[in-house]
Design goal:
The protein folds into 2 domains: 81 residues, Rna Polymerase Sigma Factor, Chain: A; 54 residues, Orthogonal Bundle (Arc Repressor Mutant, subunit A), CATH 1.10.10. The mean pLDDT is 86. It is built from 8 helices and no strands. The relative contact order is 0.07. By secondary structure, it is an all-alpha fold. α6 crosses α8.
Length: 171
């Protein structure tokens, strides 16, 4: 691992991969993932090991503990992603002509939403927009902004609570 960290040694990484990938896959399968998903998790974890090798500190943890912690975090991300509510599919209306009242109501709702978004703190608004308009995961936002994952989640949660309060009179 030190050769990978210090010299980006591909041969050393190959040895790490050959040793840990089957073990990671086995652990993932024992946690309930199918073979294909477990293999994907193992490859993602090893890719993370390669990309973040400079963060490995042998004084803080053994290589195996560090790698399996990455795997544990990846598994938690997968579980959270699976438990996300899936939006209902929007059904297309056969009519071409829309009711003028519906158009007006939707326009008013959009205006109220924009005003409510503008009343959020700038840091909350930016993160809510990235999550819901930019369709980024909390982890992707954290990586993009450099903010801690917990900070990203807290700001989004607080921003959504404020939006709910601001828009509770709608519909």
């Amino acid at each position: 691992m030190l050769a990978v960290r210090d010299r980006r040694d591909r041969a050393a990484f190959g040895l790490l991969f050959d040793y840990f990938a089957p073990r990671l896959k086995g652990v993932a399968m024992r946690s309930g993932l199918g073979s294909g998903a477990a293999e994907d998790v193992a490859q993602e974890v090893m890719l993370t090991v390669w990309r973040k090798a400079e963060k490995f500190d042998p004084h803080r943890a053994q290589v195996s503990a560090w790698i399996f912690q990455i795997a544990r975090n990846r598994r938690i991300d997968l579980v959270r992603k699976e438990n996300r509510p899936i939006p209902e599919e929007i059904k297309m209306v056969d009519r071409v002509e829309d009711d003028a009242n519906q158009i007006l109501a939707m326009d008013q709702e959009a205006t109220q939403l924009k005003l409510a978004l503008n009343r959020l703190k700038p840091d909350q608004r930016a993160l809510v927009e990235k999550a819901y308009l930019g369709e980024l995961s909390h982890k992707e936002i954290s990586d993009q902004t450099g903010l801690a994952l917990g900070t990203v989640k807290s700001r989004i949660r607080l921003g959504l609570e404020r939006l709910r309060h601001e828009l509770k009179g709608m519909r």
